[in-house]
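Thread title: Can someone regenerate the structure for this chain?

I was given the following input by a collaborator and told the matching structure tokens would be attached. They weren't. Posting the sequence so someone can regenerate them.
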Amino acid sequence: MEEVGAKAAAAAPAVAPAKAVPSVKEEVKKEEAGKKPNGKVNSEGQAATLTKQLQNAILAGNIPQIVMYTITLALVMGASDIHIEPEEKTVRIRLRIDGVLRLIVEYPNNIHPAVVSRVKIMSSLKIDEQRVPQDGRTQVTTEDGRNIDLRVSTLPTVNGEKICKRLQDKTKTIPDLPDLGLRGSSLELMEGFCKLPNGIILVTGPTGSGKTNTLYSVLNRLNEIGVNIMTFEDPVEYQMDGLNQSQVRPEIQYDFSRGLRTALRQDPDIIMVGEIRDQETIEIAIRAALTGHLVLSTIHTNSAVSTLTRITDMGVKPFLITSSIRGIVSQRLVRRICTECKEEITVEPEVAKEIQEELKAVKEKDLDPALLKGMKMYKGKGCQKCNNLGYKGRVAVFEILALEREVGQLVIKNAPDAELEDAARKQGMITLKQDGFIKALQGLTTLEEIFRISG
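Best answer:
Regenerated them for you:
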């Protein structure tokens, strides 16, 4: 056990500030009181205290404290997910911070069944069912009044049940479009989409790429007293006044397609569907768009152009695609360079040549020519503020396709993706890699991050 505790201490990083949840806040206050005026501590002190408390709870075998200190530490560190993963000899706890998993502590696997049971009790899951995956949820409230929604998923593995908890701050402020990372012609396109009276706007990208944030940023702009906005989500991640938000429940046959059919009888102006997963949902969405409604949704594809091929594969006729879909937004999240330890680096000649070639056709309103001529790149060397990672926070990289005439004609001809992308570039579309290079030149992120998301 001492060896496990030592390993946990070595893995524990410095972290950012937040408040403890009510079930542990008194204990945190007891240990923190007197260390600074009014019992307040800096972020590193709070993180160190929570990590030590988690290690002590593991050594003592205190299951409720293990679970709650893990949640508290995740909130402190600004994590999006908690992973509790059983291995052959130990169980590791990792947190996803700024899109990357980081090891926090490990504990003996003999106490793992009790940890799993505790999480299941909190999430109203079946304790005695260990053979199949389960999904549940619970809520915690932080000391500063934030409501945190925990979506819990269990998965049977050869070493025991794995737990993944997604943390969603329901009181989080909705960012505006420029805050997401939209600039220049991409921002103009998105603002144009917001003014459309009808049609379909799709946002695509992998899980955790910020698609929901983008949709809510658009809805925030469209949310007016004279507009009826309906959303169908799984789950409802942000609660906004002025929106009619509905939680779909597939287990009782209330899915996205049924929600969409119901919406058309509710006199909507704008409909947001959490995800288009099948032919029935896309066909109802197209029907809604063709009858005067603006429909927003997400879909899982690799790029803006490949979305058109995906919808065609679903069985939708090309002429319906061109007459209903107005725009497709593909996005990824990249880590921001820490502003405290940011430093200039030398760009290798072959990489500089690739960047020059990729950006030579980009308009001046999207990229200051001086940045391309001078070509300076940056990275973070690591400091206390960023936990010695060189990164702090994330920014989105976008690829936005407006379905204009030339691209539409190619869709009707069932042209391959390469032809569609060439036509989209000619009409001014900035690709994911181009937008990434622009943000790297602006000093927002690193080349490593751009190559990670674009290949």
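The first helix runs from residue 2 to 11.
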